[in-house]
Specification:
- By secondary structure, the protein is α+β, with helices and mostly antiparallel strands.
- The protein has a single domain, classed as Alpha-Beta Plaits (2-Layer Sandwich).
- It is built from 2 helices and 3 strands; from the N terminus they run E-H-E-H-E.
- It is globular and about 30 Å long.
- This is Ferredoxin.
- Pfam families: Fer4_15 (PF13459).
- Keywords: 3Fe-4S, Electron transport, Iron, Iron-sulfur, Metal-binding, Transport.
- Its cofactor is [3Fe-4S] cluster.
Length: about 60
């Protein structure tokens, strides 16, 4: 599984990190430090939770 965050859609709400703090690393302004990253199999459920928490729909889960 891979995560892609559309940096243009992200508004820095930080809901992804609130739902899955071990996966979504944010800068001091609340924006994602990494917009593309692989998710280990044991963290896939957290990745989905973080993506669903995004109010802007900026996070895409790629299988």
């Amino acid at each position: 599984m891979r995560i892609h965050i559309d940096a243009l859609q992200c508004e820095g709400h930080g809901m992804c990190a609130a739902a899955a703090p071990d996966l979504y690393d944010l800068n001091d302004d609340g924006y994602a430090n990494s917009t593309d990253f692989d998710v280990p199999p044991e963290s896939e459920e957290q990745a989905d939770s973080g993506a669903l928490a995004c109010p802007m729909g900026a996070i895409k889960v790629l299988h």
